[in-house]
């Protein structure tokens, strides 16, 4: 029996996320994409690379293999990375109350995750877009809306209004 969520081994955490993602892809993403829908996810494979790879120090090759299996090769077209000073982000988390296992991780872990997202964004600039999350919720939402609107216009050559 586990005393707290901290008792979960890092590889176990990775496998749990991979299993959950496989189920989510099978039950939700693939059916909606097959129907021609646009699908938005809160976290996908880039998050696994950043959190479990950079943050937990797990092998990138293993993570890539598990991501490929879990997603059946389905890749995201766009990743929005909400970038925020690590200490500010943790302060916001504390104000919300209950923190999950990842949010309870130390400052160095969160700095490694941020570095991971920075490197991923540099490697895949066409797909990963940095959003400055230091503003108000409305300001952050406005940035997100602008990026999504621009991408939809690129992909579908249509005009999307506010």
How would you briefly describe this protein structure?
The protein is mostly helical and 162 residues long.
- Protein structure class: mainly alpha
Show unreliable segments.
Answer: none
Shape: globular
Mean pLDDT: 90
Q: In angstroms, what separates the terminal alpha carbons?
A: 51 Å
Strand order of the largest sheet: 1-2
What is the CATH architecture term? 3-Layer(aba) Sandwich
Q: SSE order in H/E notation?
A: HHHEHHEH
> In percent, how helical is the residue content?
55-70%
Domain count: the total is 1
What composes the largest sheet?
Answer: 2 strands, parallel
Q: Count the strands?
A: 2
What fraction strand? 5-15%
CATH level 1 class label = Alpha Beta
Query: In the CATH scheme, what's the topology name?
Result: Rossmann fold
| CATH level-4 homologous superfamily | P-loop containing nucleotide triphosphate hydrolases
Number of DSSP helices?
6
Radius of gyration: 17 Å
